[in-house]
Amino acid sequence: MAKQGLNYYNVDTDRYADRKIKRLKHSFGCSGLAVYDYLLCEVYRDRGCGLVWDEDTAFDVADYFGLKVTTVKEIVRYCGAVGLFNSELLTGGIITSEAIQQRYLEMCNRAKRPNATIPEEWRLIPEKMEKFPKIPEKTENITEEFHKVNKSKVKEINKFISNNAQAHVCACEKQRILEIFYFDKNFVNPREELERFVNHYDANGWCRNGSNVPVKDKRALARAWKPQQEGKHFPEYFIKWLYSVYAQALEQDPSEASEIMNIDKYEMGGDKRITIYCSQDVANIIERNVIPTNEFRLSYRIAI
């Protein structure tokens, strides 16, 4: 059987500037970073593109660092919540992510492993990205080899890599865009606008309108998005207050903070009262992270 795992993998030098890594460190200290790094090594060592997450794996990690198994599980769940691991596959017992799979394929390409594949049920990146253009072999006379390379092929390779790197929006990126539409832009139908936004640029291959220039900053593009329905969803003072509650909840538990953006319906009443329609879970999240205010009085209409 051909080797699937890797003997080593590349690490970005700016990884600790990643806000997801910062949140992991903030919530779990160095233990969080150690568990995350350990699991990355296991991912690349074992299958290269993913790892089965079960009781045995949790025990191995806990035993190595002298941690409780429950602590390790909390750290891994948090990694899924902030987007370091894919949360949907993690629920099904698989540790992987788009970044992990992309790095795996790049490493296999460099190692000249043409048959490297990602299991269909694990795949998070477009299948065509598994088929990298062939890279010319290195020769002793580098200058001579460079001039032999067809320049149009070089452009084709660069375009392939650039376009496909932008061709998929991960769940974490969608969450950030929804934050912009819900809090910053205060759209009337933020989730519908998110779907329109993603569908529009999916159809364009994530290139700017009328050009072949790939989109580099999706969030900047989201801030310039024109909604189908004009107007604001919530009063300005309320959405600013709700965002401060959301930001505080995000520091405590990112996985539950996103539930706040499910608040859709509200009513204005006398005595500066705002009644929001939400689930009991959302009401509990708000109460745990409530920010005192004199601008209005808050009440809930709990959906059953």
Description:
With 304 residues, the chain is mainly α. The protein folds into four domains: 1-130, no CATH class; 133-166; 171-223, no CATH class; 237-302, no CATH class. The protein is built from 13 helices and five strands. The strands form two sheets. The protein has a three-stranded mixed sheet with strand order 3-4-5. Strands 1-2 form a two-stranded antiparallel ribbon. The radius of gyration is 23 Å and the shape is globular.
In short:
The chain is mostly helical and 304 residues long. It contains 13 helices and five strands.
Topology:
Layout: H1 19-46, E1 51-52, H2 55-65, H3 69-82, H4 87-91, E2 94-95, H5 98-110, H6 142-148, H7 151-166, H8 171-184, H9 190-203, H10 218-223, H11 236-252, H12 254-257, E3 266-269, E4 273-278, H13 280-288, E5 297-302
Parallel strand pairs: 4-5
Antiparallel strand pairs: 1-2, 3-4
Helix pairs in contact: 1-3, 2-3, 8-9
